[in-house]
Amino acid sequence: MREVDAAILRRLHSGVPLVGQVASYIISAGGKRLRPVLLMLMCGALGCRHPQRFNLAAVVEFIHTATLLHDDVVDESKLRRGRLTANEVFGNPASVLVGDFLYSRAFQMMVESENMQIMQVLANATNVIAEGEVLQLMNMHDASLDEAAYLQVIRSKTAKLFEASCELAAILADGSAEIRAACAEYGQSLGTAFQVIDDVLDYDGDATEMGKNLGDDLREGKATLPLILAMKLGNATDADVVRRAIESGSTEDLPRVLELVRRTGALDSTRAAAAAQAERAIEAARTLPANEFTDSLIELAAQLLQRRA
């Protein structure tokens, strides 16, 4: 990961000072670097030492960071990872344009792999992520959203880059079709579980640990799984409270919403949905070569359910 961070810093350079300032601001904010970590762990599991692995790990982090810059503008977010978002510090225009820079720099870097399969996976992933973002925008303030539609959004918006990160490792390792499918399955399932737990934490997390405010999803009018299940599991009055909150995007009823997602069992049911996805990831990882890297992939999926931030 030191090599990955070095590649990230090296490729952030631009002759335009503001580009470097905004990009460095959000990347230096920390974060889990989870997508690059997955690519590196998967390479280790497959015994791959391809020199392009550091470059491609930086690519997936650039793509992820670009989505964060754009997301915060769309969502009008003010906090990320415990500090002001880039759009709050530098303004919306700079955030959007530097997000564009990171996307285009990522495509410059992926071309260096000179591997058409890698470019296909990343180009497809980037397109699917963009579709997921638009789909989520269309679903804002829609209290009729069901579980299947919710999963479609998060598998596009979040899980697709997890899937691509793992699949890239299989391509670099020249793995079989079966290995490549197992890597992709692990990434998609882990990414889905990650986002489901993230949506739980918006109603049951620690704002200080998370570095963002509780109820942000509600304020943005997002019908996430805890709310969808609360309307399904609660009585008519409960469902009406949640429906009004989603449609208005108001956090005025947040205390009541927090109480009923717990009382109806919606949070427990959402965690169970995340656990099922994590188990799918574990099953996929168990088809990979047995070694310490595969063990770490399995442990990562298991520990994801204990996430608090």
Automatic annotation (TrEMBL):
Stated role: Supplies octaprenyl diphosphate, the precursor for the side chain of the isoprenoid quinones ubiquinone and menaquinone.
GO MF entries: all-trans-octaprenyl-diphosphate synthase activity; metal ion binding
Family membership: Belongs to the FPP/GGPP synthase family.
GO biological process, alphabetically ordered: isoprenoid biosynthetic process
Keyword Cell wall biogenesis/degradation: no
PANTHER family, per the entry: ALL TRANS-POLYPRENYL-DIPHOSPHATE SYNTHASE PDSS1, GERANYLGERANYL PYROPHOSPHATE SYNTHASE
Catalytic function, reaction form: 5 isopentenyl diphosphate + (2E,6E)-farnesyl diphosphate = all-trans-octaprenyl diphosphate + 5 diphosphate
Listed EC numbers: 2.5.1.90
Pfam families per UniProt: polyprenyl_synt
The protein's name: Octaprenyl diphosphate synthase
InterPro entries named among the record's database cross-references: Isoprenoid_synthase_dom_sf, Polyprenyl_synt, Polyprenyl_synt_CS
